[in-house]
Amino acid sequence: MTHYGMAIDMQRCVGCNACTIACKSTNNVPEGVFWTRVHTDGGDVPDVPRETAGGLYMNYITIGCQHCENPACVKVCPVGATYRDEATGIVRQDYDKCIGCRMCMAACPYTGVRSFNWEEPKYAMDFATGDIDVPKHEKHVVEKCTFCYQRIAKGEVPACMELCPARARHWGDLDDPESDVSKALAGREYAQLLPEMGTKPSVYYLV
Amino acid sequence: MTENVSTAGAVKAPSAPAKAGKGATVGIVVSAIVAAIGIALWMVQLSGGMVQTAMRNLDSWGLYITMFMFFVGLSAGGLIISSVPKAFGIKGFGGISKVAVMTSIAATVAAIGFVVVDLGQPLRVWELFAYSNLGSPLMWDIIVLMVYLILSCVYLWAQVGNEKGKVTHAALRVISVVALVCAVLVHSVTAWIFGLQQSHEMWHTALLAPWFVSSALVCGTGLVMCAAVALRAAGYLKWDQSDLVKLAKLLAVFLLVDLYFFGCDLLTEGFPAASGMAVVDMLVSGPLAPFFWGEIILSAVAVVLCVVPQLRTTPLMVVAGICAIAAIFCKRAQLLVGGFQIPNVDLPAVMTPFTVTNWEGNMAQAYAGMVYWPTPLELGIALGVVGLAFLVFFLGLKLLPLKPAEQE
Known about the structure:
The complex is a heterodimer of chains A (207) and B (408). With 207 residues, chain A is of the alpha+beta class. Chain A contains 6 helices and 12 strands. In chain A, the strands form 5 sheets. In chain A, strands 10-1-12-11 form a 4-stranded mixed β-sheet. Chain A has a two-stranded antiparallel sheet with strand order 2-5. A two-stranded antiparallel sheet of chain A has the order 3-4. The radius of gyration of chain A is 17 Å and the shape is globular. Chain B is built from 14 helices and no strands. Chain B is mostly helical and 408 residues long. Chain B is globular and about 70 Å long.
């Protein structure tokens, strides 16, 4: 069974937001919505360090859906609009089924990775960008990172992988020891976000 | 006897007319208008988008779910006060049994209404029955609420039937036991919507379910006290002052249990002086302090009014009832907003108008005050749903034989 996952190298990430933009344009993500965001581990505002005894400190961590093996969101969805695709290990969201109760947003421990379309989706441009087979965005439903499901189905990699200038992202089948992601994890120390929540994320951070 | 029953004589006098008079009709008209305005505002929310509410991605529930919790709680008292005496075969609280159940029905209708107005896609509500995920606490709640509403109606019907001799005492007793179990379940399940989520430290406690039951008993008893006194004053029913005193004593016990649970929870959160301390700080001295201290003070006032015999006059008992209801509302608000007030990931990142209610500054500024405060549209819709509850209650008073039967 394939279990897709990602490893993000925190030593390499420069916080350039290229992944944020690649994700947004590939998936035609509406204005004001971001499926992946670069968080600054530093001061109070993005891209600003904080003072420590050893000098200034700043690092970046990009956070999107963690595609958990034990997802809190899937358990609570009353209609099964969010579900874990057993064939790929990807946590998916069915816009046509979502009733907009936002139970998944309350249940997800990873603050802000799920977003709700609070109004009719608007776009910066008057034509759709990115992949033609991206599901149409809908008002009043929850959406989130899909691991670019439409690209994976065609044997491609997620958009955020392709444009990362620092080559900080590794992708592949976690169950296959020869995959890029498995090799990246094998040689390095890594962490997961909020492991104490017991959600078993499929996204790893190389530290 | 230490009960203050001096005012009983004064209000016993008027014999109630056959049907609820003008008061109920005026109530029906006013509440129908409020409900209609609420529905119009709901249409505004649906067409213009929920961007008109203050809810955002990081505080994705607001006033509607607060009011949902609150009204589920209010629905408790009526049913429990009415069914406990029947279930255990003990003396009841006078002739308010049917009116009490009517308050339950009205509050349950409002609770369901608040879930519906919170949905982004209310037209897809049928999916709840077609694609039910029976593992979801929200699904449990939908099922239990439906059963609860139907059971409350059946229970009311059985009481009326019993008075007419059509339903036997044994049957009524069985129904009241089932209703009682369902009432406890409906509060537990509502608590589990929050309490089973490991992602919010404030919610994730095994105490939440019993605590929801005790809170429900507090505000439900408060509501029945106020409703019964109002109906007595309006001449709708006769009600002995000693029964009001009995309810007041019960309210005091429920309040003390609720405060005890609160104390247990705060101690457990705070004692390790670890991450749970953030919850205690937020409540005691942080953004939610007005709601925290509001709850404590209102509860204390209500307890004092209920336990000091000299203070058990009718007006002060109404004050105690209102204080109890307001205290539980404070509790609901602090629980809901408090859950979102402490984010698990609070590192700064790009913020948009959809990220968090106060998005214009940075994360620290967004969380400096209360992370959520409702917009006028939300308040209007909430008022409309409350209007709907009053409409149901007044219609019940007007059309159903809720007055105590002669033999009681």
